[in-house]
Design brief:
The structure holds 2 protein chains of 2 kinds.
Chain A (H helix, E strand, L loop, with lengths): L1 H31 L6 H18 L4 H28 L4 H23 L14 E4 L2 E4 H23 L1 H11 L1 H6 L4 H27 L5 H16 L4 H21 L8 H12 L14
Antiparallel strand pairs in A: 1-2
Helix pairs in contact in A: 1-5, 1-8, 1-9, 1-10, 2-3, 2-4, 2-8, 2-9, 3-8, 5-6, 5-8, 6-8, 9-10, 9-11
Chain B lengths: L2 H20 L3 E7 L6 H20 L8 E7 L4 H13 L4 E3 L4 H13 L4 E3 L14 E3 L4 H4 L4 H7 L4 E7 L2 H16 L3 E8 L7 H8 L5 E5 L2 H13 L6 E4 L5 H7 L7 E4 L9 H14 L5 H20 L4 H8 L3 E2 L11 E3 L5 E2 L2 E7 L2 E8 L3
Helix pairs in contact in B: 2-12, 3-4, 9-10, 12-13
Classes of the chains: A mainly alpha, B alpha/beta.
Chain lengths: 292, 378
């Protein structure tokens, strides 16, 4: 029982990080009707901003994290929107998708060029000491990851549903033309969406990198798993991305522990195929009608 | 122009050509993992070689010719490594230094063999010297020699009756896993948890949970550097209490740097360690490496260094740059430190390229590996 609890909680903690990244996919999808295939690299870059702050600028950790957050908002939010999305979006969604793939490669190789191919240690933001919980030894880090991630998702949901700005963002996502007629500043709402995505990526980066270590290639796996999590949960729903992330995190750990460790990497793909066949809109997603 | 003058001039021209030829550098290819999962090992290997090449060239080079190296990044990809070994040979390499990952070496060593090019490798999979390739030579003992050295440590020192194995599912990991499992069977120690993981795996929660619940008295950890670090971090998170014992990589400087406090207490059998400062040559190399690169050398750095110096020593014993003669000379060759000080320790190769030399048991204490025992060559 203690082993199950241990594995389950670890899975939830990892899954909550996947969820943060997966929510980014849904936000960009709703704002620009495109899939950001550089999302994995978006999670890698902020960690290296922190390392630059600590090692090159000799800042204290908290200040380096704050600086990394600001840089992430600027680079992954504002610059991504202004330099990649806005110029290419009029050419169509496919062009933009290919552009995000190129951006992912550019970010990955730039990190490698600047900081090297070797993994780097990354300081933990929360204590790593193990604590005993119902017979299971769980790290404070896992619990804090879970609490912080879920807390952010709850706050984000409240923001989107209970505030005027949040409702304007939703209106923009549903129908930008009508939203503009109703007086919504559509461009600003889209910018907010990209800023939130950048902040979520930075948060995921700060939480996961102490365990995964800072490495230029980490985004490859993380991006794919979060993409699958978003599809499994429902690509057009934040709560779907949350559910998908947690589900994959937990199932991955349970499979590796009780079924097979050798084929654990195949699980998300099997889940993806099953969902596409049985419920294409995802577990909590809603169908979107398209006409030609 | 009379006959005497003509002869004198011809002789002078021929002599000057001969001198120019003698001064042509000898090219050697460093084909190694400079990016990808093997980058920590590969960059250290390369940097160890850099130190050796500087020393060799300061010492007059090999047979009077300076050494010129070219770096080829395999990206930790076996097929790329094969193409790069061919490229290095096409560009005139007299010898190949690398690769480290066994999966790559198994693929690319055939190219060097076909071209009769001596190749010093950092790989430790038993399969490498089982292929009957007379041109491949190790710079550290293979798993089939290194891992058995741990048997008495598990049996006598730790008194283990049940053990777990955590290993990375690649050529390196499989080799070590198979040898260790066979050794445990020989001495009647039960393997109660056999946990494999993938190369570049990031999440070890399930692996550690299985080991923790297995009832093992100790765990044998056999992974590459980054995987070892992530495993140790997760082991600490879950409070894994049993001794974690590895072969070579578990206590490496890079692993300790990445895992931080989570590496504390980890134990490993290592063929070479920069912390064995009681060995004069190792202490000097470690100091020079740290001064040059501002970091501590790993065992891969020492392996690269030793491989480069062995190339010089053996070539000069042969007396010419001849791959086939080099390979023949390497059979059952011993290079002792008294006559070959840059070998750092008395080193022997058998007729298959397998290597043996004294080794060490180390444990991480206060953030650094400390030698806790010395084992004779086996």
């Amino acid at each position: 029982m203690s082993q199950f609890l241990q594995v389950f909680l670890s899975g939830l903690a990892t899954g909550s990080i996947y969820a943060l990244v997966a929510i980014g996919f849904t936000l960009v999808w709703q704002a620009a009707q495109t899939v950001n295939f550089a999302q994995g690299e978006f999670v890698v870059l902020p960690a290296f901003f922190v390392l630059v702050g600590v090692h090159l600028l000799h800042l204290p950790l908290w200040m380096a994290v704050a600086l990394a957050l600001l840089l992430s908002l600027l680079v992954l939010g504002v610059l991504f929107k202004k330099l990649v999305v806005e110029p290419i979006l009029p050419s169509g969604g496919i062009s933009l998708i290919i552009a995000t793939m190129a951006l992912g490669i550019l970010l990955k190789e730039s990190i490698k060029e600047f900081y090297g191919a070797e993994a780097q240690p990354f300081p933990a933001l929360v204590p790593q000491d193990p604590i005993n919980l119902l017979g299971a030894t769980v790290s404070m880090q896992d619990i804090m990851n879970l609490v912080i991630s879920l807390g952010i998702v709850v706050l984000l949901t409240l923001f989107l549903n209970r505030t005027r700005t949040g409702r304007c963002m939703q209106a923009t996502a549903q129908n930008p033309a009508v939203a503009e007629i109703l007086g919504v500043d559509v461009k600003r709402m889209v910018l907010y969406t990209f800023l939130i995505n950048a902040a979520l990526a930075a948060l995921a980066s700060f939480l996961i990198t102490p365990v995964y270590l800072a490495k230029f290639s980490n985004g490859e796996t993380l991006g794919v798993i979060a993409f699958i999590a978003a599809i499994v949960g429902g690509f057009n729903q934040i709560r779907g991305a949350l559910a998908g992330g947690l589900l994959i995190g937990v199932l991955d750990n349970l499979t590796a522990t009780y079924v097979t460790a050798e084929y654990r990497a195949a699980l998300p793909l099997v889940l993806l195929i099953a969902i596409i066949l049985l419920r294409p809109q995802g577990l909590l997603g809603t169908s979107e009608g398209r006409t030609v | 122009m009379n006959r005497k003058t003509f002869l004198a001039m011809s002789t002078a021209i021929l002599l000057s050509m001969g001198v120019a030829q003698a001064q042509d550098p000898v090219k050697i290819g460093i084909v190694v993992e400079l990016s990808g999962a093997g980058a920590p090992a590969g960059t250290n290997w390369r940097d160890g070689i850099k130190i050796a090449v500087d020393e060799i060239n300061a010492d007059g080079g090999i047979l009077g010719r300076l050494v010129e190296t070219a770096e080829y990044d395999t990206q930790t990809d076996p097929q790329t490594s094969r193409a790069l070994v061919q490229k290095a040979i096409d560009e005139g390499a007299y010898a190949i230094w690398g690769t480290i990952y066994s999966g790559s070496t198994l693929v690319n060593m055939l190219v060097a063999q076909q071209n009769e090019i001596p190749q010093f490798v950092g790989s430790e999979s038993p399969a490498i010297v089982d292929k009957g390739n007379p041109f491949v030579f190790r710079t550290s003992s293979g798993a089939q020699k290194g891992v058995p050295a741990l048997t008495s440590y598990f049996k006598d020192t730790l008194g283990a009756r049940k053990v777990g194995i955590a290993w990375v599912n690649n050529e390196f990991g499989k080799g070590g896993h198979d040898v260790f499992a066979a050794e445990m069977a020989k001495v009647g120690i039960e393997v109660v948890a056999d946990v494999s993981s993938e190369q570049a795996q990031t999440d070890y929660a399930a692996d550690v949970a299985r080991l923790k619940d297995s009832g093992a008295d100790a765990v044998f950890v056999y992974m590459n550097q980054e995987e070892s670090a992530r495993f140790l971090i997760e082991a600490r998170k879950q409070g894994l209490a049993m001794p974690l014992v590895g072969e070579v990589t578990l206590t490496e400087a890079k692993v300790i740097e990445l895992a931080g406090g989570a590496a504390e207490g980890a134990i490993a059998h290592v063929g070479l360690t920069a912390t064995a400062t009681q060995v004069e040559g190792i202490a000097q190399f470690a100091a020079k490496f740290e001064q040059t690169f501002n970091r501590r050398p790993t065992h891969d750095a020492i392996k690269g260094y030793v491989g480069a110096w062995a190339t010089k020593y053996v070539t000069e014993m042969v007396g010419e740059f001849n791959g086939a003669a080099f390979a023949e000379k390497m059979k059952n060759l011993c290079l002792d430190v008294a006559e070959h000080p840059r070998m750092l320790l008395d080193t022997c190769w058998d007729d298959r390229g397998e290597m043996s030399r004294p080794s060490f048991m180390v444990q991480v204490k206060d953030g650094a590996p400390v030698v806790i025992g010395t084992l004779p060559a086996n």
